[in-house]
Amino acid sequence: MHNSESEGKCLPLVERFFSVQGEGYHTGKAAYFIRLGGCDIGCSWCDSRFAWDPDLHPLVETDHIVNSVILSGTDSVVVTGGEPLIWNLNYLCSCLKNKNIKTFIETSGAYPLSGKWDWICLSPKRNMPPLSSIYKMANELKVVIQDGNDFRWAEKNRKLVRKDCFLFLQPEWKRFDDVIPDIVEYVKKNPLWRISLQTHKYMHIP
After folding, report:
1. 144-155 pLDDT tens trace
2. What CA–CA distance (Å, rounded) separates 20 from 177?
3. d(C-alpha 172, C-alpha 183), whole Å
4. Residue 166 CB neighbour total at 10 angstroms
5. Taking Cα atoms as reference points, which of 106, 83, 91 lies closest to residue 8?
6. Longest CA span, the chain
7. Other CB atoms closer than 10 Å to residue 108's CB: what's the count?
8. How confident is the model at residue 4 (pLDDT cuts 50, 70, 90)?
């Protein structure tokens, strides 16, 4: 890894776009999305496999990415992946904060946290669980439900986050019809949880 990468001054950019947050607590809010390449977690249902291999995506100067954010006119940025915390995000966040832009991250929590964030969405994966240090920093816990076993995984993670952390169960998109009835019943019996839907897919937007 070159110094520019280790310092976060260049990042493997998969895509960037100005859109609307489609899932979780901030559903419906406009935001600029930065998707970074690289992920070794390997979820079978992942809908962004194209981002797994960082070598397939060009290293782009972080300053250039930030300039694109500024030109969009947005007031907030969502950094996602892949698994964005594979990379050092201190410099990216510092540049955005200098422009009074809010920073949001969506992460599995499997790598150490870098960067300064206004909102951390923790989406834990069973095959590569989060580091213990991130649980108390998470503002939002979002657990993807693929089958009945995932409810137990959700509860295990719920016990580790702060009491004021927002809790979401999200149906795996390809199994939506199969799992949504169980999720609805679960939320009715366990009102601490809310349902997160991938509304951007219904709206046919990125």
Report:
1. 999 999 999 999
2. 24
3. 11
4. 18
5. 91
6. 51
7. 23
8. low
Q: H helices of 104-175, where?
A: 149-158
Bridge partner residues of 122 (DSSP): 107, 141
From the number of C-beta atoms within 10 Å of its C-beta (0-12, 13-18, 19+), residue 27 rates as middle
**pLDDT band, residue 2 (cuts 50/70/90):** low
Alpha helices in 15-173 (DSSP H): 62-72, 90-98, 149-158
What distance in Å separates the CA atoms of residue 156 and residue 151, rounded to the nearest whole number? 9
Nearest to 115 by CA among 145, 96, 93: 93
Amino acid at 78: V
Lowest-confidence range among 39-43, 122-126, 143-147, 165-169? Answer: 39-43
What are the structural domains, with CATH classification, of the chain?
3-203 (3.20.20.70)
pLDDT reported for residue 50: 83
Residue pair 117/104 in contact by the 8 Å Cβ criterion: yes
Whole-model pTM? 0.94
Tokens of 147: 């089958």
Nearest alpha carbon to residue 16 among 61, 5, 164: 61
Sequence-distant (6+) residues with CB within 8 A of 159 are: none
